[in-house]
């Protein structure tokens, strides 16, 4: 199971594009709200989530996705349960994917140290001891980072390739008419 963690102020496309791509590939994916069944995006889109944080099932967990957007990324960063989930994923070598402002969460807790990463311009200072570059997506071991809304498809397909391999990624990108 892949969980997409949503907090008020998340960036629409950074959450919904990965969800769509993964669903098309048959990956089990669910949206998770921090403390409400309805989460509002930066653009005022209201999303009814599949689960709340306290309903996450750790036994089937393959990884998590942290969308950016402000104040969505800051709201995720302030939540102790989110930080515990990230720590669990990191310690168990499960996928952690963060886009836009959300890589700052990973940088602040030290799991990007010595790893290549990227983020939305201006957030580099939060990626402490990381090797920051301007690629649209970085895959470094089990951590995937991406720059922002415009890289959402690249991000989604990098996640899919990480989880299911390049053949599935190529099949789904072809079906969606997306050229990688």
Keywords:
single chain; alpha/beta; 7-stranded mixed sheet; 6 helices; 11 strands
Domains counted in the coordinates: how many? 1
State the helix count: 6
CATH homologous superfamily placement = Class I glutamine amidotransferase (GATase) domain
Indicate the CATH class. Answer: Alpha Beta
User: Main sheet?
Assistant: 7 strands, mixed
Low-confidence stretches: none
Strand runs, count:
11
Strand content: 15-25%
Structure description:
The protein is α/β, with parallel strands linked by helices and 180 residues long. The chain has helices at residues 12-24, 72-77, 80-91, 103-108, 152-164, 166-175; strands at 2-6, 29-33, 38-40, 46-48, 51-52, 63-66, 95-99, 116-117, 131-132, 137-140, 143-146. The chain has a seven-stranded mixed sheet with strand order 5-2-1-6-7-11-10, sandwiched between helices. Strand 1 (2-6), helix 1 and strand 2 (29-33) form a beta-alpha-beta unit. 47% of the residues are buried. The mean pLDDT is 96.
